[in-house]
Amino acid sequence: MEEIEGIITLQEEIVTVNEMPLSKIFLNYNGKKIKLSICCGSDAEYQYDGIADIFYYEGNQPYYRGTKYVNDFFIDQADILEVLEKHTNELVKIKMMSYWENLV
Length: 104
Known about the structure:
By secondary structure, the chain is mainly beta. The protein has helices at residues 22-25, 80-85, 99-103, and strands at residues 2-11, 14-17, 20-21, 33-40, 45-59, 68-75, 78-79, 91-98. An eight-stranded antiparallel sheet has the order 3-2-1-8-4-5-6-7. A hairpin with a 2-residue loop joins strand 1 and strand 2. The longest helix has 6 residues, at 80-85.
């Protein structure tokens, strides 16, 4: 299980927690069946259960000046980054666990 706590911010349209891109933090869970719990400072709470579809790219590309960032974070059809953008500048606690961890 992985747990992080921090302030949600947007940096160049990338959702970050403690200045670290969220998709980059949880990239190891891509393609796995997971449980995700999000508790926000506004007393909102979200629970997701399904297959994680997580992508993160940071680098240079031809015909693009500077560093390019691309990321996605879905649990089945739910866009997790879109949910978290609504809680920018709020304290959040995020817990993610894959099903194989739950069985051990």
